[in-house]
């Protein structure tokens, strides 16, 4: 019961406080796809004299570890035909499904969400998926098991997208000090070993797919310190810390310092 409550609470925090991904990244992703995917064009060539090519709007994409759906809705803006959001957490899928219910009919036809453990298998036919994405989650996986699942469903010449954001840099100096003191101070020893991959921006992450191309973008996340505290509350290290310190006030302290300068 307690575990279930914590999972629901965590999913709601993800939905409320995790930043959304900038649309300016999408042209960079689409540029990679059209340059490296055999026969892929930016737009459908139906009706032309040439042999019809696969277009971006025909692609089927799987968003592994989609959480509350922010990454799935981000990918939908690229115009992919179908995007399947997968997550091992029922609570996260519930939040994603709620968000989908608030979208227009076109988006609802484009996206579906379901519970799935990608370590075991992805529920699709062999060689049926054009791109598999793992956004802000690749560091948590057993990579050998995940890549085995991906290899089974990914089409020959298909693409793998791993996207993540690094440490937050707060432009307000006092807020940055608060954030760093919490991130590396109270929470420092509660970060699991897997978090080292996020800290190193995936440079040490094993990725078996070639060619590898790195895309960089500055994520502007305009939010008050109170929401920054909410973002911290969604971190895995905070979950572990708060479980051992149920009376912790570190998030309240951040909000108090914001109100009182």
3D architecture notes:
The protein has 261 residues and is α/β, with parallel strands linked by helices. The chain is 42% helix and 14% strand. The protein is built from eleven helices and seven strands. The chain has helices at 2-17, 26-36, 70-76, 90-101, 105-110, 143-153, 173-186, 195-199, 225-233, 236-244, 250-259; strands spanning 40-41, 54-55, 60-64, 82-87, 111-115, 129-135, 154-163. The strands form two sheets. Strands 5-4-3-6-7 form a five-stranded parallel beta sheet. The termini are far apart.
Write the SSE topology.
Blueprint: H1 2-17, H2 26-36, E1 40-41, E2 54-55, E3 60-64, H3 70-76, E4 82-87, H4 90-101, H5 105-110, E5 111-115, E6 129-135, H6 143-153, E7 154-163, H7 173-186, H8 195-199, H9 225-233, H10 236-244, H11 250-259
Helix pairs in contact: 1-4, 1-9, 7-9, 9-11
Flag low-confidence runs: 1-6, 42-53
Radius of gyration: 20 Å
What is the terminal-to-terminal distance? 39 Å
Name the assembly state: single chain
- Note the total helix count: 11
**Helicity range:** 40-55%
Instruction: State mean pLDDT (0 to 100 scale).
Output: 80
Q: What structural category characterises the helix and strand content?
A: alpha/beta
Element string (H = helix, E = strand): HHEEEHEHHEEHEHHHHH
Overall form: globular
Strand order of the largest sheet: 5-4-3-6-7
């Amino acid at each position: 019961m307690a575990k279930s409550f914590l999972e629901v609470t965590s999913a709601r925090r993800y939905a409320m406080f995790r930043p959304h991904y900038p649309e300016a990244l999408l042209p960079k992703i689409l540029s990679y796809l059209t340059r490296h995917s055999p026969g892929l064009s930016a737009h459908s060539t139906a009706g032309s004299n040439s042999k019809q090519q696969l277009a971006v709007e025909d692609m089927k994409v799987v968003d592994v570890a989609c959480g509350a759906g922010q990454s799935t809705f981000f990918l939908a803006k690229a115009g992919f035909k179908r995007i399947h959001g997968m997550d091992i957490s029922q609570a996260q899928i519930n939040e994603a499904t709620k968000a989908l219910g608030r979208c227009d009919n076109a988006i609802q036809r484009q996206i579906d969400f379901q519970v799935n453990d990608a370590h075991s298998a992805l529920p699709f036919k062999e060689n049926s998926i054009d791109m598999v994405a793992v956004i802000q989650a690749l560091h948590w996986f057993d990579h050998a098991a995940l890549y085995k699942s991906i290899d089974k469903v990914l089409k020959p010449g298909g693409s793998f997208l791993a996207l993540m954001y690094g440490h937050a840099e707060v432009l307000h100096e006092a807020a940055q000090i608060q954030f760093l003191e919490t991130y590396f101070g109270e929470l420092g020893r509660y970060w699991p070993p897997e978090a080292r991959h996020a800290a190193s921006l995936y440079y040490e992450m094993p990725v078996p797919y070639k060619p590898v191309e790195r895309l960089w973008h500055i994520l502007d996340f305009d939010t008050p310190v109170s929401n920054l505290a909410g973002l911290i509350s969604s971190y895995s290290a905070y979950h572990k810390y708060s479980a051992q310190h149920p009376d912790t006030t570190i998030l309240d302290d951040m909000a108090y310092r914001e109100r009182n300068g």
